[in-house]
Structures are given as C-alpha cells and as structure tokens.
Fold:
Amino acid sequence: MAASILAKVARDARMRELHQQYPHYGFDRHKGYPSAMHRQALQLHGPCPQHRRSFAPVQRALRDGAQHDLRHLASGT
Structure:
C-alpha cells in the first residue's frame, strides 16, 4: 500500500513539472488521466514529446494532423 502512495506522489509531482513545461495540456489538473479538456488540447496542439504514443487519443491527434510546433507551448506563450 505504501508503494502505491509513493508512486502516486511521484506521478503527481512529475505532472506538475510537465505542466510547467507544457501548460496548455493542464497536466497539473488531470494528472495524466484522460479528460475532455486534455483530449481537446491534444486536438488543438498535438501531443508533446511526453505523450504516450500508444494512447488512442494521441494516435488520433497524430492521425488527424494535429502536429504542431510545440516550442511555443514550452515557453508558456
């Protein structure tokens, strides 16, 4: 049980770090779990390098051509 708590704490911390890098995805709110807002961000901005390519919404975003230059996302502008 303690291991699962530690894993969740570590995952939540990593999601906050990713939010600092890619604020458009709302990683600080959904913590990597799919949400309507997250799916919409994938369609608008395409996946960032940390998105899991085996995740169906990421595959859809790539297939639908949502491949954008993410440098502006990393800067927060």
User: Anything to note?
Assistant: Helices lie at 2-21, 27-30, 36-45, 56-63, 71-75. The first helix runs from residue 2 to 21. The chain has one domain: 2-75. The radius of gyration is 13 Å.
